[in-house]
Design a protein that fits this description.
The longest helix has 20 residues. About 55% of the residues are buried. The protein has a seven-stranded mixed sheet with strand order 15-16-17-14-13-19-20, with helices on both faces. Strands 10-9-8-11-12-22 form a six-stranded mixed sheet, with helices on both faces. It has a three-stranded mixed sheet with strand order 1-5-4, with helices on one face. It has two domains: about 270 residues, 3-Layer(aba) Sandwich (Aldehyde Dehydrogenase, Chain A, domain 1), CATH 3.40.605.10; about 190 residues, Aldehyde Dehydrogenase, Chain A, domain 2 (3-Layer(aba) Sandwich). It has about 475 residues and is α/β, with parallel strands linked by helices. It starts with a strand and ends in a 6-residue tail after the last strand. Strand 11, helix 9 and strand 12 form a beta-alpha-beta unit. The chain is built from 16 helices and 23 strands.
Length: about 475
């Protein structure tokens, strides 16, 4: 059992004002693995006040000093690596190999952002059209409410904490309910690194906690990763105070397979593009668009690959696909499969609970064929290991189908012809496109979506600038 029944505010652990706690389940065993505090609105007030108190001194520090603190912070988190990986496995049900990777992500993001300190021009100069000399200052936005999703809890916290600290902001982190426990290591590392009190505050809690934080008048920016439905609510709540918001939301990503695509490349890269972290990825390639001529061989090859996926105990090093995060989510995914069949689709492989895995929230890797582009399973985010194969007549129709959802986060193109791949990539309305690959994320390349997949960007210099406001200082008197 891991206990996080206190909140971390102003550099110290404090008893929350409410006795309520969250029970955190292990998705593989269905057992309670820990408890986390439910921060009340009063606790949120205290955390925001602490961050506001810390902001003037932190924002006034030279960027190089901020980077030094961030490096110390990273060093302390690194010391928890094995413990953190074990806890992530218990909370998320992700395979052990991914939990080890995930445990390294916050330190990596802190160090990477710290390395940008000397290359980001927070102060620039420009000549105005009137001849005025202008200094453009990119100043820290202020207090940041960082709200992370459960499907990559350390990475998604780092996506917000690291650029915010480099930009000169202070942070109140609120992790997802399902993965509240691993945030303890973030708070403990902040304490051990002797970060200024109030610089990084960590509060756990439920939807009421999150709503109190998002709607707080003392918050200057909200950075959120999660579902599009919750993103809508966050944007609406933040609008009351005109709080700046960046949203990284859902996806319904498509891969277009041209007739000249290399089948071996597709089979090697497509399954990871859907099944990594148990299929619970916003960037998952969940629609595969193939021509009528190639559909049989593509379906056969991918079905064989899916049947080779090892599903089971995430603690077993052989496991490639673990359980989904909760019973409710498992049931939701299976309902999508049943609905697709009712709409006329056929199950090529999978479609249910794996044999022998009745304990835990498991779903087989699933491929659906004969899916209509407008069917629910082709339009709504499933967030599970389910692939819909959709036929197209020509590449123009494939592009239309790929773009014909409310989402625009990611996409892929498979073709042996660079010109064809380039034309298709240019025509896809999404934040990133992967050529002859199912998924790639690079911490120096901006990441984000179009349409209902959100707005704002994470990673790279662009991700840091999301935490700044631009001020124009006219330096040399009046001009006409």
């Amino acid at each position: 059992m891991t206990e996080m029944t206190e909140v971390f505010i102003e550099g110290r652990w404090q008893e929350p004002s409410s006795p309520d706690v969250l029970a955190i389940l292990n998705p593989a065993t269905e057992e309670v693995v820990g408890r986390a505090a439910v921060a009340s609105p009063k606790d949120v007030d205290a955390a925001v006040a602490a961050a506001r108190m810390a902001f003037p001194a932190w924002s006034a520090r030279p960027v190089s000093e901020r980077a030094e603190y961030m490096s110390r912070f990273a060093d302390e988190i690194d010391k928890f690596g094995p413990q953190l990986a074990d806890l992530l496995l218990a909370e998320t049900g992700f395979p052990r190999s991914h939990c080890i990777f995930e445990a390294s992500q916050l330190p990596s993001l802190l160090r990477h952002n710290a390395s940008l300190a000397g290359s980001i021009a927070f102060v620039q100069h420009r000549s105005g059209a009137s001849g005025a000399q202008v200094e453009l200052r990119h100043e820290p936005a202020g207090v940041v409410a960082a709200i992370a999703a459960w499907n990559s809890p350390q990475s998604l916290a780092g996506n917000k904490i690291a650029p915010a600290l480099l930009a000169g902001c202070t942070v109140v982190l609120k992790p997802a309910e399902q993965t509240s426990l691993d945030a303890r290591f973030i708070a403990e590392a902040a304490e051990r690194a002797s970060l200024p009190p109030g610089l990084v505050n960590v509060i756990t809690g439920d939807a009421v906690t999150a709503a109190s934080l998002v709607g707080h008048s003392g918050v200057d920016k909200v950075a959120f990763t999660g579902s599009t439905a919750v993103g809508h609510r966050i944007a609406s709540a933040a609008a009351a105070n005109l709080t700046r918001v960046s949203l990284e939301l859902g996806g319904k990503s498509a891969a277009i397979v041209a007739d000249d695509a290399d089948l071996d490349v597709l089979v090697a890269t497509m399954p990871p593009g859907l099944l990594t972290i148990n299929g619970e990825m916003c960037v998952a390639i969940s629609r595969l668009l193939v021509s009528e001529a190639r559909e049989p061989e593509v379906t056969s090859a991918l079905s064989a690959a899916f049947q080779e996926i090892v599903v089971g105990d995430p603690a077993d090093d052989r496991t490639q696909l673990g359980p989904l995060i909760s019973a409710a989510h498992r049931d939701r995914v299976l309902e999508y499969v049943r609905g697709a069949v009712a709409d006329g689709a056929k199950i090529a492989v999978g479609g249910g609970v794996p044999a022998g895995l009745t304990r835990g929230f498991y779903v087989e890797p699933t491929i659906l064929t004969g899916v209509d582009p407008q069917a629910t399973v082709a339009q709504e985010e499933i967030f599970g290991p389910v692939l819909a194969i959709i036929r197209y007549r020509d590449l123009d129709e494939a592009l239309r189908i790929a773009n014909e959802t409310s989402y625009g986060l990611s996409g892929a193109v498979y073709s042996s012809d660079p010109a064809t791949a380039g034309r298709l990539a240019a025509g896809m309305r999404c934040g990133s496109v992967h050529v002859n690959n199912g998924m790639n994320v690079d911490i120096n390349v901006p990441f984000g979506g179009f349409k209902c997949s959100g707005y704002g960007r994470e990673y790279g210099p662009e991700g840091v600038m999301e935490y700044t406001e631009t001020k124009a200082v006219f330096l040399d008197g009046a001009h006409t």
